[in-house]
Structure formats: C-alpha cells, structure tokens
Amino acid sequence: MKKAILVTGSNGEIGSQLLASMQDSPITKIALDINESITNYDNTIYIKDSITNSENIKKLFNQFKITEVYHFAALLSQTAMNNPQLAKEINEEGSKLIIDTAFESGSINKNFVKFFFPSSIAVYGPRKLIKAKETDIIQPTTIYGKNKLLIERYGTKKHEESHQNNAGIDFRSIRFPGIISPYTIPNGGTTDFAPQMLHAAAVFLLKNGEEEYECKISADTKLPFIGIEEAINSIIRIMNMEDIASQLRSFNIQEISLTPSQIIDTIKKEFPNFSIKYNVEEKLQSVADTWPDSLNCEKAKKEWDFSTQYDHNSFFMDYLIPKIKKHYERN
Ligand code: SER
C-alpha cells in the first residue's frame, strides 16, 4: 500500500500553507477540501468532498497507508455561532469520524497514525485570563470553543487508549491564538480584525484600497497572536518529534499579544495615512472578552522546543510588513 499524508481543509489558511511547505516532499499528499483546490502540486491527490462523508474517509484509509493526518477542516468561531448545527456536524462529528478512522487504521496495521489537531484559545473562558496555562480554567462559552475542547479531549482519550493497545493514533494538538498571515485574509473568526487591518492598510497604500478600516473590537481588547510562518513551523516541529512523553496533548503557543490600538499604531509607522474607526459589535466583543489576553507557552517550549524570535516591533517591521508588501507587489 502506498504511504500518504492526509490534509483536510487543504484550501484554508493553515492547510494551504502547510501543503505549500510540503510541496517538494516526494511523499503522497491527499488534500481534502469542500471547495475546488486552489493549488496544483506534484505528488498531491486533490479530493473535493466533505469530511463528513464517512464512506470516502474510510475508502482513503483503505486505499493508502496514511501515516499522518493534519485535520484543519472546521468552521471558525463566528461562523459556528451563526450555524450551531453545522458546527456540531463539522467541528465535532466530522472530527470524531477522522479520529476514529485513523484509530481503526492504526489498530489494524499495528502502528500509530500521527494525528494533528488545531485547537484554539477559544477553549478558555468564561473570564479573560492573563498568561493562561493549559490547565487553567477552561469553560468555553462559544459553540466553537466547546467543539474544540470536546475534540481535544476525545483525541487525548483515543491517544491514551492507543498507548494501552500499542497501536492506534498519536494525538498532538496546538491551541492556536489568532493567526496573522501576510498572504491570506481570513473571515468568520473573532481574531480576524488583526490580519484584516494589516491587509486593508497594505491594499490602501499599494493598490488604492479603502483608507479606513472599521474595527468591530474595542481599542483596548488584548489577544494573543502568531504569524502564519511560526504557526506552520510549530506544526512541523510538534509532528516531527519522535515521541512527546507528556500526558498533556494540547499546547499553548503565541508570539505576541496585541490590542487593536497597538496594531494600528504600529501599522501607521509604515502606512501613515491609513486610519481606523471603531464600531464595536457585541457578537465579536463578547467572545474576545472571554479569550485570554496572553498564553503561558512553557509546556510547548519544554516538550517540543517551541520558540519564537520576535518582539512587538520586529513582528511587524521585520516580518509582517516586508512580507505583505512583497505579496501585494507580486499579486
Ligand atoms: N482565530 C480563530 C477565531 O477567531 C480562533 O481559533 O475564530
């Protein structure tokens, strides 16, 4: 049987960047997404389908020897809030289906399928924590946070079961903060204002876009963030570890914590005529108020060498702004 890696949600912000980072590897990748694929890499089989199609998922595991799964397909926090039933189907039932099928495949083949699950700061709540540890109070108030926590726990349970049976899945997960990518503009999430603001400023200056961004989160709401490059590096690092002995399977990571007003102050250094207007939306604000202002990342540093090189200034000046300028000059 041919070895393969399965990436679900392969068109999404994280999925597409991870797939790009694997494009030179000779191993077969199966890229599964509900939409028509946006790339055309070698050694990649594109499948347009839902992760809830159990027949198809089982067929893939029967056809290929899937050694690693990167399961990104999901509805983000605001989209989930607007479609709770669909969120349950995709974020919970779909995820359980992929975990169960990977577990069965590992059990039959007497090996471990490495399984990566992107969790989120949305598992925290109901109060805003500072330097939240993995084991701090986790009582999510949103449907999305509840979905993520349920799958963290389900994956961890299946991981423990696998270790007792010496076969099944090796579950690894990261609780992502807001992700800022110079290449894509997300929507449907609560932390999207940060990347949206940066892209709006770059488009305004480089392509005559709108000169004002309407921010729906209050100026002083602090949230943790990470750049897409470090998010991808971290996924690769945690998955490349031979073994993570820790019972903890979901780790916090972040690069910096930012408020909308700090972001605009920094962006203005580069794009001085760009401005921002606040029009706080309760639906977003009430979620942001339950997510941590910052994360304690000691466990990730200790267990799988998570590291970051940026401070507030260099995050923008040395990383995001040069990359976003290059991106819009090219596209
Ligand atoms: N960034 C995501 C959101 O805002 C959280 O994981 O929904």
What does this structure look like?
This protein has 331 residues and is an alpha/beta fold. It folds into two domains: 2-176 and 228-252, NAD(P)-binding Rossmann-like Domain (Rossmann fold); 179-225 and 255-294 and 309-330. Helices cover 44% and strands 20% of the residues. The protein has eleven helices and twelve strands. It has helices at residues 13-21, 54-63, 77-82, 84-109, 143-165, 193-207, 228-240, 260-270, 282-288, 298-304, 312-330; strands spanning 2-8, 28-33, 44-48, 64-71, 112-120, 168-176, 178-180, 212-215, 223-227, 250-252, 256-258, 275-278. The strands form three sheets. It has a seven-stranded parallel sheet with strand order 3-2-1-4-5-6-10, with helices on both faces. It has a three-stranded mixed sheet with strand order 7-9-11. The chain is globular and about 60 Å long. The model has no long low-confidence stretch (mean pLDDT 96). Serine (SER) binds next to loops.
